[in-house]
Specification:
This protein folds into 2 domains: 147 residues, P-loop containing nucleotide triphosphate hydrolases (Rossmann fold), CATH 3.40.50; 73 residues, no CATH class. Helices cover 32% and strands 31% of the residues. A 6-stranded mixed β-sheet has the order 7-8-9-3-10-11, with helices on both faces. The chain has a 5-stranded antiparallel β-sheet with strand order 2-1-4-5-6, with helices on one face.
Length: 224
């Protein structure tokens, strides 16, 4: 079954043509890595999938449900069954690590009695179970990345969206977290769309590599 289907999606942001006639299918449980230079439309693609933008033309389907059509979102972000790791992480600084995750569960109306267990499980998945009581500013860069990933996973999504999550890290830490992400995705059998400009990310993570140029898909390659 398909996790995601974009059909002839076009999007303009002000005077900039961000995407033009983009069609892409992502199968359930697979990892698609989208490669391309800055400004090629990678982040806009993720924001459309997340429901943070609406397409000017074309349709978006997630897990068999039409979620967006020209000019409007039919399904809001919180009902799309996805987790999003932003490039700047977007952790809430006034909340502890555990509170960052519990807030997501609260917005999903998960019963309060279940939130602690779900939060702890997500922190264990990314191997920072001991950091729940700390605030983001008390963490290293790598630990903050793990919190952002745990927050994306705590909702138990079927689709994970990541926007250059490791771009600010040194090569050694990046390699470690890349391997961790690959382990988690396979363990949880979640579909993933991962945006990057780093080909090493694609080498480690991708079942399928999508190359973008100037708002269009230049090539799609399936890795053996």
């Amino acid at each position: 079954m398909g996790a995601v289907s974009l059909a002839h999606v076009t999007k303009r942001l002000g005077s900039h043509q961000a995407l033009t006639d983009v069609s892409l299918d992502v199968l359930s449980g697979t990892a698609v890595v989208v490669l391309g230079p800055s400004g090629c439309g990678k982040t806009t693609l993720l924001r459309l999938l997340a429901g943070l933008e609406t397409p000017d033309a074309g349709t978006i389907t997630i897990h068999g449900t039409l979620v967006a059509e020209p000019g409007r979102n039919l399904v809001p972000p919180y009902m799309r069954g996805l987790g999003f790791v932003f490039q700047d992480l977007a952790l809430w600084p006034h909340m502890t690590v555990a509170e960052n995750l519990a807030f997501v569960l609260g917005s999903m109306r998960v019963p309060r009695a279940q939130r602690g267990t779900r939060t702890q499980r997500a922190l264990e998945l990314v191997r920072i179970a001991q950091l729940g009581s700390r605030h983001p500013h008390q963490l290293s860069g790598g630990e903050q990345q793990r919190v952002a990933l745990a927050r994306a996973l705590v909702s138990q999504p079927r689709l994970l969206l990541l926007d250059e999550p490791f771009s600010s890290l040194d090569m050694e830490l990046r390699a470690t977290l890349r391997a961790e992400l690959d382990r988690l995705r396979r363990e949880l059998q979640v579909a993933m769309v991962y945006v990057t400009h780093d080909r090493e990310d694609a080498t480690v993570l991708a079942d399928q590599v999508v190359e973008m140029r100037g708002g269009r898909i230049d090539s799609i390659a399936t890795r053996p």
